Amino acid sequence: MKKLITTILCLFFLGSGTTLKAQALFEEDFNNYPAGHLINNYTSTTPQQGGWYSGITPPVLGSAMVTPEAGKGNVLIITSNGVSTVGGLTFSQDYGIIDVLWNNRTVGNNILKFEYEFYGTDNFVVGGSVLSQGPSLINIAFQSTQKRIVANYWNSISNKNIILKNYNTDPYPFNNWIKVEMFIDYNTKNVYFYIPTLNLQKADTFAHNRMPENVYFSAGSLNSSSVVKLDNIKISALQTLPSYILSTNEKLAAKFNLYPNPATNVINITNSENMVVQQVTIYDVVGKQLNTQNFNEETQIHLSVENLASGTYMLHLRTNEGIAVKKLVKK
């Protein structure tokens, strides 16, 4: 069942004593639809059942069927229809749905969370995205044909890919329901990708003010044996990041050392595991980005801070393991 909602959910985290306000904006679990085609006319550009439409040019190379599954209710199953040796389809909501919901979110809920559940067999390239001004704003794609799982997000002027995992030696995670979670933190300009089922997590920074406008799914490279399933699509607006996202990045930050701190002119950045740093971004205490410097895969950084006014700053260190955030005090 698709729901366009603005419910506030208060989640109490045991042991932390903190309350996280999560505002659910959009949900789709397919449970309110009869078994059969989700989209009755795959070539139509008009939204159909549940507001979903495909609008692809004939011939149609795949089908999206609402199907009951034990223990999950209805799920959406995507298969090739046999017209081509490589089938697939795309489907999305109409513009004017997600953007309106986001623009009317509760004040202060400036973290977007996008999640869905995925199941795949045989060959597929499947991704779920939130779009903005055409391109993907944030995305996680499962690519069995390339033996990898890839994250994608809008950086500043283009899309950037992050390999969450290559499966060149490990078996690809076929035939399992996999939950994915993505976060865009507009307060700190960070993106986070998290797949709890596979214990995968990455983070990075961005420099733009693009807002979410649409939700979009694509499934391609399907052969006659391919089966792709989707369920529990959801978009939420959060006030703060979940503790399980922050805890991983805090562990990464603990591996870095800043000295001298407080600093006057230059700060030295080192780490205990010789992790390389690609970029350092400086924010003030209210989250305003002040400066970004790129580095050539360096394990030790000498960063000039002489132009900063006296005060407290947050350094975002971008590494291959994610974003490490360290506090800097300038004398």
Automatic annotation (TrEMBL):
Write the record's keywords in alphabetical order, separated by commas.
Answer: Signal
Tell me which domain of life the UniProt entry assigns to the organism this sequence originates from. Bacteria
Residue ranges of every copy of the Secretion system C-terminal sorting domain listed in the record: 258-329
Signal found in the keyword field: yes
Pfam families named in the record? Por_Secre_tail (PF18962)
- From the UniProt annotation, give the residues forming the signal peptide: 1-21
Keyword Transmembrane helix carried by entry: no
Q: What is this protein called?
A: T9SS C-terminal target domain-containing protein
